[in-house]
Amino acid sequence: MSQTVTRALRLLAELGDGERSLDQLAEVLGVHKTTALRLMQSLEDERFVYRDGDFRYHLGAGLFALASLAMEQRGIRRIAAPHLAALNAATGQTVHLAAYEGGEVVYIDKYDSRHKVRMYSRVGLRAGLHNTAVAKVLLADLPLAERRRAVAAIDYTPHTPNTITGPQQLLAELETVVAQGWAQDHAEHETFINCIGAPVRDASGRAVAAVSISVPDMVAPYEQVLELLPQLLETARAISVDAGAP
């Protein structure tokens, strides 16, 4: 049973990257087409996938409904929503909310920029742990021993010339984040995007989420992104207050 569940989840993850044929899905699992077909039929029965007229599979409405329920169960997302919308309206820039779970940082809400240049990010997507402002904010809030373990486990893939490439460099950066109360991604994940992030705290005083503003450099240079910091920090503070932070 566990192997069947694992295979089904792998197929759903594969479809998250786009439509696939049965041959392609069987190849992903390294199984015969009949095995893949049985799995897909079960997923299709639950509306987790659907097959189009060209016999290609897509993620289905049942999965989207389940994802929507999962998002609704995140109290911090609901609390943050009006504040994120206001920040997005005031700045015109892309605003994200992210959370740390299971050793990963995941985007749980997003408000798109009013500009034509859009970011690839989407709700449910993982954020890079060593090259995004939201991840730095959340890693910096971990207890020191846990922070060191998390940093040691990262794959330091260099995405740009500015990407942090090792644990000692990231640990030093996280100390800066702790001291100043916010983080930056200065063209570290994408060469043309700058980002600033700040923690959202609940009644425990711990960071339960991170809010960020991301700006393409063709819209505003890095120095102008830093000018948005007071608005970002005020938004993070307002969400934290509503979440019960002391």
TrEMBL record:
InterPro entries, per the entry: GAF-like_dom_sf, HTH_MetabolicPath_Reg, Tscrpt_reg_IclR_C, Tscrpt_reg_IclR_N, WH-like_DNA-bd_sf, WH_DNA-bd_sf
Protein name: IclR family transcriptional regulator
Taxonomic placement: Bacteria, Bacillati, Actinomycetota, Actinomycetes, Catenulisporales
Coiled-coil residues: none
Domain of life (superkingdom): Bacteria
IclR-ED domain location: 62-245
One of the Pfam families matching this protein, by short name: HTH_IclR
The entry's keywords: DNA-binding, Transcription, Transcription regulation
Domain HTH iclR-type as annotated: residue spans: 2-61
Species: Catenulispora yoronensis
